[in-house]
Amino acid sequence: MTSLADRPVNPVVGVPVAHESAALHVTGTALYTDDLIVRHQDVLHAWPVQAPHAHALVRDLRTAPALAVPGVVRVLTAADVPGVNDAGTKHDEPLFPSEVMFHGHAVCWVLGETLEAARLGAEAVEVDYEPLPSLVTVAEAVGAGSFQGGQPTVSRGDTATALATAAHRFSGELEFGGQEHFCLETHASFAYVDEGGQVLVHCSTQHPTETQEIVAHVLGLHSHEVTVQCLRMGGGFGGKEMQPHGFAAVAALGSVLTGRPVRLRLNRTQDITLSGKRHPYHARWEAGFDESGRLQALEATVTSDGGWSLDLSEPVLQRTLCHIDNAYWIPNVQVHGRIAKTHKTSQTAFRGFGGPQGMLVIEEVLGRCAPLLGVDPTELRHRNLYVPGQSTPYGQPVRHAERLRTIWTQLLDRAEVERRREEIAAFNAAHPDTKRALAVTPVKFGISFNLTAFNQAGALVHVYKDGSVLINHGGTEMGQGLHTKMRQVAATALGVPLETVRLAPTRTDKVPNTSATAASSGADLNGGAVKNACEQIRDRLAEVAARKFDIHPDDVRFVDGTVTGIGFHDRQMSFAELAHDAYFQRISLWAAGYYRTEGLHWDGARMQGEPFKYFSYGASVSEVEVDGFTGAYRLLRTDIVHDVGDSLSPLIDVGQIEGGFVQGAGWLTLEDLRWDVSDGPHRGRLATQAASTYKLPSFSEMPEEFNVHLFEQATESGVVYGSKAVGEPPLMLAFSVREALREAAAAFGPGGRSVGLASPATPEAVFWAVQEGRRALTADAEGTPAPATTAAH
């Protein structure tokens, strides 16, 4: 077996190719879970009965009126569950609850011959609720002592002493919002019992194995009696890692009880009100710097809003603490984490998985403190970047730390930052009511699951007698291009053209016990497993070819569908011929591949270890223009240099970097989740339930000039074909947009003042930041001190 990172001659990896379903996407012929129902007869449709309270007891549930509605077939309640009435892995998420825990909580589900019949049936169900007091905000939960899960701490050094002796000491707090996944495809499941008695669930899920396990335990079955298939998803972003399980279980339960296929697809309002989001956070921090502006200490308490149940809140919080340093060396650290329990949707995984929330805290610290230190924010960030030999607060060496400074320098050069700063200064001097600014921010993001056991994957590869190849792997496709990369890996490992490799849908009866497609690890894990399976087959085929060519198997070469030997110019055969010959020699042409990430260890109780295989690095510079009258802004230009190792598929990777950046900019500047926090009848109701009230980034929010460059000569050893993950790290590149907005708002003031900026930095928030700068300017003119925004001594 060859080294995992080595590439053969003429590899298919590294070649820019289109997404394997691109033509299907743009022609509208790509099938998704909900498209499959047209192939079945007598399909029933599911509709939830959603509670109108944030917190209440279900005193009585009368389903008879629903059954009187024409077309209603059955109402599913807790009494119908033959197994465990729970949709989670921690048994804190009742599938049919007796206690409502958030506004919109589904207390039962109606099955109808048509969607309209199910909807009318749901309206007819009579429920008696006893409203209870509710906690809707993080502040309310903290005040009530309402927490759930563990409260981890990451620490290093003597923070108290370092703060006490620091030349400069600052403190502050920040509250920042969550984010709705808003996948183009909402949650969808389609279940039926096949001719062999197997429960088959088609599901839009990032974690088919866990969906299988939850469906099985709700139905009181073993896992081998349930098969889950994921054809593709119209977006996932983490929202389909944990949250699909309950919806799949409802569809499967309905199918088992009625003997008919059941389709459950949420409409947009149901999807937003029933499913979890990125965790909102509150952070309180204190930081110390030396005379040269180098960080000496950080003490912080971060509180995430977990919603009503744990879901993935604990690992999300752990990753927050593991990324609160971002790309900066902080010798003394003490950060406490806790999870607030509130009466809202159960917040869940979202691209970055808590990492963005931690990194936002340290970027806030540097952005607020730079003017107080009298240091340019870009220089302050550069001054504090990790260097080789340093390690993270949890003890992992920062390998290849030199790449951070190389990327930084390369970015400043490619983006012509020095020249543009002169132009910005001239523009600002000539425009009193419009200001421009640019900011540069780095990213260091750890790749692997914090839970070490999840860092494994399997694959099943078939070579047919005609030389064609079919691959199965445990990863799921949500538009990110994983399947495209896996085809390229298989074609490279077998030495065949890409067009001879086909990929089958992800199914739990083909590759079992898979991990979620998450943590940016899909290509690393599944690529390793696919490569392993292909190499098993190739090694067997090499034995056959060696006998034919009378050479050693190690001297056989597979290139572009042709099999030959080292130095051969007159003897060769096609891969198809070799496969045919191997079959008649009774040589196995299929293999199960397996991969486990080596060199990982994590002690979650002590928050110490080396949980990540490597770090992905990157940096971005963004330039904005702010209108001083309204706070409205334009994103004029963004330049990115990002490290993806040796890219498996450059076209896919550039697309992921662009998309991740824009999604991050949406979280930081536009997307504002609002719940009703009044004491009225709609307390706890999500007010932003549609695209009309929840602003998503669109084409108009793209940078007017957008330049993405893949960092070169960046082979990563020990990873499939030397590549690095690309799914999550680019989202955090959007910090440069928020910091540019802060600097533009500060440009309306006298300089040297710390300007606060809410998150998300909506035009309204930017307007108030501009006003803060202007007040400081007025205070300077009048000779009176401006209100302090950050304590310092």
From TrEMBL:
S-adenosyl-L-methionine in keyword set: no
The entry's keywords: Oxidoreductase
SMART domains given in the database record: Ald_Xan_dh_C
A GO MF label: xanthine dehydrogenase activity
Domain named Aldehyde oxidase/xanthine dehydrogenase a/b hammerhead: residues: 27-133
Record-listed E.C. numbers: 1.17.1.4
PANTHER family associated with the record: XANTHINE DEHYDROGENASE
Protein name: Xanthine dehydrogenase molybdopterin binding subunit
Organism: Kocuria oceani
Lineage, top ranks: Bacteria, Bacillati, Actinomycetota, Actinomycetes, Micrococcales
